[in-house]
Amino acid sequence: MTASLDQITWPVTTSRLSLRRLTENDLETTWSYRKLPEVTEWITSGPQDFETYRTQFLESGKINRDIAVQISAPDGQAQIIGTVMIYIKDAWGQREVAEQTVAVEAELGWSFDPQFAGRGYATEAVSKVIELCFEELGLRRVVAGCFAANEPSVRLMERVGLRREAFEKANSLHRSGQWMDSYSYALLKDEFSDRP
C-alpha cells in the first residue's frame, strides 16, 4: 500500500498542540503570517497579494500535504500558529528495483507565525510529524532543506534530530536575485528507532 496522509486519524495531538489537515477555510489565517517579510524571506512562494496566495494555495496541492498546527486560544478556540508540509515522494532507485522506491520518503517543510516563536511549538510539531512519518506512514527516510542563511530552520532541523547531509554552494536562487548556499538534512527510520 502506498503511504498517504489519509492513513492517519486526524487530529493528532501533542502535549500542547493539535495537528490536522489544512483546509480551504485556513486561507486567511495562514496568509496573515505568511505575508510577513520575516516569513516570506525563506518560504518557497511569497505572493504579494491575497488573491495570488489563494490561487497558489489551491493549485499547489497544499491542502493535500500540509498540516495545520494549532494551539488552544484563551477563549478555548483552536488557533493556527503554523503549518508543516509532509510531501510523500519516491526515492531514487535503479530501474530493476524502482518499484521498491515508490512513496518511501517524505520531504518536510514548515512556516510558523513569528508571534509564537521561542516557545518550542515548532520543535514539538515537527518532532510529532517525524514520528508520524516513521510510525504511522511506515516511511524509511525524511528529508528537509533550507537556505544556509535561514538560521531558525537550521536550528530546528538539528533540534529535532535531523542529520546534515549536504552543504551546497550558491545553488539556490533567492527571490532577491542572489544565489545562496543551502543545507540538506535527513533522518532514516533506523536512526529514529535507535534514539533514546
Automatic annotation (TrEMBL):
Gene3D superfamilies this protein is in?
3.40.630.30
Question: Superkingdom of the source?
Answer: Bacteria
Transmembrane ranges? none
A Pfam family the protein falls into: Acetyltransf_3
Query: Which PANTHER family does the record cross-reference, listed alphabetically?
Result: GNAT FAMILY, PUTATIVE (AFU_ORTHOLOGUE AFUA_3G00765)-RELATED-RELATED, N-ACETYLTRANSFERASE DOMAIN-CONTAINING PROTEIN
Q: What is this protein called?
A: GNAT family N-acetyltransferase
Organism of this sequence: Glutamicibacter halophytocola
**Residues in N-acetyltransferase domain copies:** 17-190
What InterPro entries does the record tag this protein with? Acyl_CoA_acyltransferase, GNAT_dom, N-acetyltransferase
